[in-house]
Write a structure and sequence with these properties.
This protein is α/β, with parallel strands linked by helices. The strands form three sheets. The chain has a five-stranded parallel sheet, with helices on both faces. Strands 7-6-8-9 form a four-stranded parallel sheet, with helices on both faces. A two-stranded antiparallel sheet has the order 10-11. Strand 8, helix 11 and strand 9 form a beta-alpha-beta unit. Helix 1 crosses helix 3 and helix 2 crosses helix 3.
């Protein structure tokens, strides 16, 4: 197999320069980087990971920790993070954590002892888990969070959740809906709770009453969408539209509507949030708010592995599809 010496000889550079290119180090000129990368491609060179770890004092591993029941949301962030890790010569380790404090700390301790990751990626609700954040600080592990609300000295992508909720309210009110049910997030999802605040903003701006009976809790999973949807549609004056604050619950409402013989959107409009892949395969396709989840996954990896310091601003977009229509 070709060695780093072969690459250096072909590119006519030092071994140190090859190492800096392989490790994505800054301050390498574009001309040198192109020469080294061309030599690597021509020879089919693959860096020795053990040598990289010894030389740089790094594991070249990042840990993605989650405790979120919405698989579509998690998988799209994971995909973006995994592809970016590949670009930067890192590996992504994915670990679900239990909500139980002691158990999740045990899993974290074992993970760190075995793999010694160079950093940790967190998504809601772990992004606002004060105990977990404190434990990572004690360990000296760099952390990058998506949609974190708690103040912490780490890299955090702040997301426009409130603006997204307002988009949904404006969309449904613009279609003539005046009685709209809302399936709210679990209590621990602080960022997602701002979606409900934005929706309330839209009702108040339109001069519509905010009825507590129309706001029912969900668990961000398919089953709770069905359960909350049943309660909303059993009201004496049932809503003409339901906003579920994530796609998994919205898909549960869609399934319930089909079971009840309700036409969507003629009898009931349904809107979700996240724009997961399942929102396109449902029938009818789901109106939802798009988050650039893959891009967010790439950004948190950049922060940990690529040295990114400034969190980019991401915009949310309402994607109107067949599940919402005029009242």
């Amino acid at each position: 197999m070709p060695s780093i010496h072969d690459v250096a000889a072909l590119a006519q550079v030092s071994i140190k320069t090859v190492s800096r290119v392989v490790n994505k180090a800054p301050n390498v000129s574009a001309e040198l980087r192109d020469r080294v990368e061309a030599a690597i491609d021509r020879l089919g060179y693959r860096p020795n990971q053990s040598a990289r770890r010894l030389a740089g004092g790094k594991s070249f591993m990042l840990a993605f920790l989650y405790n979120n029941p919405a698989p579509g949301y998690v998988s799209r962030i994971q995909m973006g993070a995994a592809w970016r890790c590949r670009d930067l010569g890192y590996h992504l380790v994915v670990e679900p954590l239990s909500p139980e404090a002691n158990e999740r700390f045990e899993v974290l301790d074992r993970l760190v002892a075995a793999l010694r990751p160079d950093g940790v990626l967190l998504v809601p609700p772990l992004a606002d888990d004060a105990g977990l954040l404190a434990r990572l600080t004690e360990m000296g592990l760099p952390c990058a969070r998506i949609a974190g609300s708690l103040s912490a000295p780490d890299f955090t992508i702040h997301t426009p959740e409130r603006a997204g909720g307002r988009m949904v309210a404006d969309h449904l009110i613009g279609l003539g809906h005046r009685r709209i049910g809302v399936i709210t997030p679990p209590p621990g999802h602080r960022a997602a709770s701002r979606r409900v605040e934005g929706f309330r903003d839209g009702l108040e701006a339109a001069g519509l009453p905010v009825e507590d009976a129309l706001f029912l809790p969900g668990r961000f999973d398919f089953a709770s969408g069905i359960t909350a949807g049943e309660a909303l549609l059993a009201l004496p004056e049932r809503p003409s539209a339901i906003f579920a604050t994530n796609d998994e619950m919205a898909l549960g409402v869609l399934t319930l509507a089909h079971r009840m013989g309700l036409r969507v959107p003629e009898d009931l409009s349904v809107v979700g949030f996240d724009d997961t892949s399942a929102s396109l395969t449902s029938w009818p396709p789901l109106t939802t708010v798009r988050q650039p989840l893959e891009d967010m996954g790439r950004s948190v990896v950049d922060a940990l592995a690529g040295g990114g310091s400034d969190a980019p601003e991401f915009l949310f977009t309402l994607i109107a599809r067949g599940s919402s229509g005029a009242v």
